[in-house]
Amino acid sequence: MMQPLFIRTTLLVSALAGSIGLSAQSDCTDYHKFNCERSPDTRFSLNGQSKSASVQVGVPTELNIIVYKGQDYRISLAHDARILGDNLSIRLVEKVREPKAVEETVTEKQAVLDAEGNPTGQEKDLVRSEKKTVYEDVRKVLWDNGEHDMASEIEFSATSSKRLIVEVMAPGATEGKNKKDVDIGCVGILIEHMATPNIGF
Amino acid sequence: MTRPHFVILASLAVGLTACGGGGGEEQPAGQGQELVIGGDDAAAMASSLYQMPTPNELFAIVRDMAGEGQKRMMNPASNVDRYASLPARALNFGVYATDLVYASYFNLNVEVVRYYLAVKKLGEKVGVQGAFNDNDFVRLEANLTRGNNDSLEAISNEAYYKAYSKLQQEDMGPTLALVLAGGWVESMHLVMHQIISFDPASPLTSRVAEQKVSLEHLLDLMEQYKEDPNVRPWHERLAAIRDIFDHLETKRVPHDGKSSSGRMVLGDDVQVNLTAEQYDQLYKAVEQLREEIVRPEDQASVKPNA
């Protein structure tokens, strides 16, 4: 990953060009770069899977990422509260590919024989069942901010590599002087990582 | 948004909301819960976005366990002009971009410049010319002269990331899918060639086995483009490699307590085991696919890097 000092320099330059940056945010592309605060722990590096997206009120949006074993991650979100509301519903969900036994009906053609066992030229359907293993994705909810005071930031260690989904849904802004008459706003998801450090002696 | 079929176009929305929030306590994995926030009704209209880790994440992890880099394992930079079709160019753009990052992480400094130029050249042909500029190249040369390896890594990653972002922003989904496919195969090829003899207990072997999840993720990403005639054959080939991974023994054990850093551990500990036969099968499948990808389209054979 990019080195922290280099990233910070890049972000500083970006911040200095803030007024120019505002227009770039109109399509949400760099929203996380401008609105999510980096971790004060400088060991965290910016992860290339960070992403911003436009989110519609009431419509779930998923960011699918990979986390690697032996890494610590920090995921933080920012959003336009004037459109999307004060708190986003956020969940981290693991996608697991699991085997599943299924039974399939298989239809085959079989030649019809006459009394002497000779083919009549006709065919009949022979139906049988066949057992096979198929694989499908199962989702397992690992973290839900509804159980954590609607937190918009989480730090965790990955002890194995996983496919993760960051699920986001916006409730919409309540009536107020700052409320906008649109229902699509930007959400930024900033991902940072570092090799899991050891603490203690 | 950059992919209109995924995400509804946004109106201008500029606000500033700090990323605050509390930490998390360890949560038990929940099963049988709603598939998507908002329930099944909401699931039907959910928007999905995919991001792939950049190759440096894997190389940074395996660098300490992998020994020296082997430049002869990289696709010869001299082949760069020998890919004429869009799929071959996109796939090999992914291959060369991965080689570039590999060269920078394994201190193959001279190769960094060579592969930067190869990536830039092929990038122009796949439509991401804006991702590379002369200033970056000057920075690259200056850092090479000073032997500043950290900066070489940073510049290489930046080049990869810019190209990746450009493909997303320009709605070049099928091309991006092929670039990522080429990159995944090349990463596997390079990491597997760091394994001199198979040892099921080796950390490097277990890293190879764990690429099961990155392949599943890649295939998910490619799924939306699999009807594209350029993408379909490569999706099928990668799905065949996933079939090999499907047969690996996988053990899931709930994690007890926090990690060595004191942070919560997310989800179960998962161990994916590879036998020697399965490793061999995987190795052959990856090498065969990689050979098809990097084979120059004029069919003439070129010796690997000396």
Descriptive report:
- The complex is a heterodimer of chains A (201) and B (306).
- Chain A is built from four helices and nine strands.
- Chain A has 201 residues and is mainly beta.
- Chain A has a domain of 138 residues: Jelly Rolls, CATH 2.60.120.
- In chain A, strands 1, 2, 4, 7 and 9 form a five-stranded antiparallel beta sheet that branches. A four-stranded antiparallel beta sheet of chain A has the order 3-8-5-6, with no helix packed on it.
- In chain A, β5 and β6 form a beta hairpin.
- Chain B contains ten helices and four strands; from the N terminus they run αβααααααααβββα.
- The N terminus of chain B is likely disordered.
- A two-stranded antiparallel sheet of chain B has the order 2-4.
- Chain B has one domain.
- Chain B is mostly helical.
- At the A-B interface, β2, β3, β4, α4 and β5 of A face β1, α2, α6, α8 and β3 of B.
Give me the secondary-structure topology.
The complex is a heterodimer of chains A (201) and B (306).
Chain A: H1 4-16, H2 18-24, H3 31-35, E1 45-46, E2 51-56, E3 61-67, E4 71-79, H4 81-84, E5 89-113, E6 119-144, E7 153-158, E8 162-169, E9 184-195
Antiparallel strand pairs in A: 1-9, 2-9, 3-8, 4-7, 4-9, 5-6, 5-8
Chain B: H1 39-43, E1 47-50, H2 55-66, H3 86-105, H4 109-126, H5 134-146, H6 149-169, H7 173-192, H8 203-223, H9 232-246, E2 249-253, E3 264-265, E4 269-273, H10 276-294
Helix pairs in contact in B: 2-3, 2-7, 3-4, 3-6, 3-7, 4-5, 4-6, 5-6, 7-8, 7-10, 8-9, 9-10
